[in-house]
Records
---
Amino acid sequence: MTTNSARPGYRRGHRSPAASVALHLTLIVASLIAAVPVAWVVLTSFKPNSTALSTEHLGRLSLQNYRDVIGQGFGHWMLNSAIVAAGTMVFGVFIAATAGYAVSRMRFPGARPLMWLFLLVQMFPMAVLIVPLFVLLKDLHLLNNLLGLVPVYATTAVPFCAWMLKGYFDGIPTAIDEAGRIDGLSMFGTFWRLIVPLARPGLAVTGFYTFLTSWGEVAYASQFLQSPDKYTLPVGMQTFVNEYVDEWGPLAAGSVLIIVPAAAVFFLVQRHLVSGLTAGAAKS
Amino acid sequence: MISRLRHSYDRYWYAWAMALPVTLVLLVLVGYPLVEGIYYSLTNINDLNMGRTIGANHIPASFHGVGLHNYWYVLSGGDGQFWPTFVWTLEWTAGCVVPTVGIGLGLAQLLNRRMRGRGVYRVLLILPWAVPSFVAAFSWRLILNSPDGLLDWVLVRLHLPAVNWLGDATSAKFSVIMVNVWIGIPFMMVAFLGGLQAIPGELLEAAEVDGATPWHRFIHVTMPGLRPVATTVTLLGIIWTFNQFAIIYLVTAGGPGGATNILITQAYNNAFSQTRDYAGGSTYGVIILSMLLLFATFFRRTLGRGQEAAA
């Protein structure tokens, strides 16, 4: 590992050429390892389907896989995924933020058990919940329904988000709340008009996290969605590779189309990731 | 008593109202299923006896309570798979969390310096986080494919023997750990980067002026400053890895021959494979949850002292 070679007497930020080279080399290698699997799937998506799994035929690239995948109900699944992910994001971040704000600003009875509950929920293995949830959704007539997935996904993302947002709100001076209250805003009004705009970076990070959790979820979706027109992307994509069909090429093309929206959301918020995450982690 | 309740209601109702939606959602979708799951684990419920409605015919449920039999059966090793799976789950968790935290911290240290191209490195290094686990698993299956996947192609070019990555137990275990570390590093790195940036630069400069070596500065200034972040993300990392379903399920499906099944995928198999043994799956789930609860309590007692006040 390259370490800081700034010897006493050097100002911070200065380092010897050798240390500089070592630093950049390490980071370049690490970046390559981070990027190669993604690049590889992109490359595979342009290869002929028959050779998708191997390193052959890198010379002959085409858009055929994309044509195939879009012809197979892909747009529909993508729309379903977008509805579920966006719904979970809005719903999840909203309820996480109100709870986080209440815990951050008010020492009310039940605040500590609530935070402890959030930590507990992180530990709940999906295996113990999935059968009862299946029965519950069936009773509520929400089985095979995209709306049923939204609150289910929210439960997996919300505890972590509430924790993070509580930390983020702790970093916003309470003087702002007091000013809002003096100007006649209610607690919710203060939260909504003053704190939410200030907490945008934190909200962006939690929104991103919630979006990704639901965008790529497989286990619940494949048990709870039963008809192909209700499938989300990951469930639908699994139909490309099963006992009967073997379409790795279209699967790769589909994977690229799944990454694109996720990466777009991601690049919009990545500036805020560091500050947003720390506020939560450092103070929770 | 009642007047005290009234008083606290008047005072706190707004806070309760704002915490209510989240509490309701968690109670209905986590609390209720949990109670149901615990109940199922005390019965012999499966797909055949759980009761159903086919058309107009309603077949009543015919499962019955069996007390602690399921727990006894599993924990005494009666199913022959619990304890081996448990040992591998521990190896898997340690094998994933230690490198993830270590490399994440190392990269955060490197990225925390002023240098050219820092923004580009940061975006590239966070990239695996933006990849849905379903897609990550798929791209790694392309890379680990043997004998003509990318990794073996590289090995052969380097005149090294090709490895049947997902074909035998040991290399498959290594492979799933590698994939999960790849996925987990960005989160750790970003959390540590934030933690590093929260340490006042003057502290490090003062230590430097006093003649502390880089190593000493790291041990005596950086590490204590990172402690709150480190304990939280390590605890979360352990819990998430212990319960990591998607990667194992999608990369190896527990194979070859069940060798890479961790407790959570085993529980899923019990509940949803041919036998549809819901009681067995629930039993595993309750055991997993109890172990994590014990562990988290212990972890917070020993490492997280002084933090509870804030939580």
---
Amino acid sequence: MNSRRLTPTRAVWAVVLTGLYLFLLAPILIVLVESFDTSSYLRFPPEGFGLDAYRQVFANESFRAGFQVSGVTAAATALLAMVTGVPAALALTRLRFRGRSAIEAVFLSPLLVPHIVLGLALLLILAPIPLTDTYWGLILAHLGVTVPYVVRTVSASLVSADPSAEEAARTLGASGLMTFWRITLPTIRPGLFSGGIIAFLLSFDETVISLFVSGQNTVPLPVAVLQYVEYRSDPSVASLSVLLVLLSVVVVVLVERGLGLRRTLRSG
Amino acid sequence: MTADSVPAKAPPAPPESGKTPTRRRGPARLALALLLPGLLALLLTYALPLVWVLRMSLNEAGEGGLILQTVSLATFADVLGSGHYWNVIGQTVELGVLVTFFTLVVSYPVALFLARTTSRWRSLLVALAVTPLLISSVARTFGWMAILGSQGVINKTLNGLGLIDSPLHLANNLTGVVIASTEIYMPFAILAMISGFGRLDPALEHAAASLGAPRRTVFRRIVLPLTLPGVLTAALLVFVLSLSGYVTPRLIGGGRVFVLATEIYDQAITSLNWPVAAVLSVLLLAVFGVVITLYLWAQRVLEARFTGPQEARS
């Protein structure tokens, strides 16, 4: 197995795998190519290459408004999901109490419910209040599906963190809150960050639930794109997608950098 | 810390003497305080809304979008008595089965390769396989529209090569939805498989091969059984995701592919017939229940085979 010779079996494997990877990446490659297309509607091969479609994205009012709605919603949702999810993760990993595994299951159960059903459910409950077509409605709608991810990521980092430092602080007389603030929180900071980022990205990307609870006034970006694509197909959607991918890559890299930088500062 | 050993089902036991009661009641109270905000959030944004759906499914729709507050199964009877909805349910399940099958077929070789390779490109290849998850399914579906449409990449290329005269019908039908959905769920399946392939030990394959087993036998007797749990998890994940998928059937289906998800949306938003939308949601949840029960059963069967016949039968 360790020999690197090119046998017929290996060649077949290579061809099959290349084909499968091409299939997997095909829509992304097409989106990338089309984002530079200068024609006003989708065609292949592109007529010419330019940045027209990118200019169109910035000129599109519904995309700009959608970006703002999604950004504000995602930030607020991530914050609320952290505020409610982190204490729960702490209780589930650090405390022993009756019914713990049942409550753990409760916290993961929203992942099993289809978003189309949750969307309808939230419409039915938010419409009479009335919170549909508002920021609060969107935030509440996204909260239920982001909390489980926060609980999971933060729990994972709490489990892998060594609790002996916490115990040492406790025996030396630190209060529970003090121990959490000075010992636990710094230890699990990477887990907290990734939990927050995941909640943000999930909320920013949430389409189906938003479709039900958004209206004319607060239209999040994915819903705006969906409505756009349903009636028109021009390269600006491709450019928008490329910009969003770049944005999420930048966010991930910045967080990675920020955490790494802070760590080196602390150890130095 | 002894409370952990108390089974969850046990009735609240009287505090045993000799143990410090403050230490036992303290954590419980603290736990409740810590859990309360999260539980409240889930209650308001997930549990209560689902109860509302159940309640709504027992109502009836009146004239002109009116909702009659009843407690009856009339809407269920209407939906289940209509051929149209049976077609929708049938097409939803058919789409789920087809997409799951094709996703497993295209994901398995990739996952197997990524699980076994020692190449220094491994992490790059894993990243490439998972990258699509970073990109919204609306954007990827848009990409597939550009590939599958009558003026799309495939038809233009085949036409340019002179292989076809009239464009192939790859969009606005079930074929297109299956192709695009397969790609959209592929990264989920690959991830689920890789993490489920934990039992795959190359030493076993080496042993089998050195004992003279041909490649095909090694695969059938060693690799396949050891990877089945991962495949099963991936199958559940993809099936459940595609049962409730909305974006791809809507966009690639072009209004001609009716599944439960698109029907729920249309009834709720376009027709404002909330009772029927609620009934369809309850039916979708019922299908979910059946699928998850089947999964748990299959998992038990596999576990029994793994632990060996003697242990399983004892």
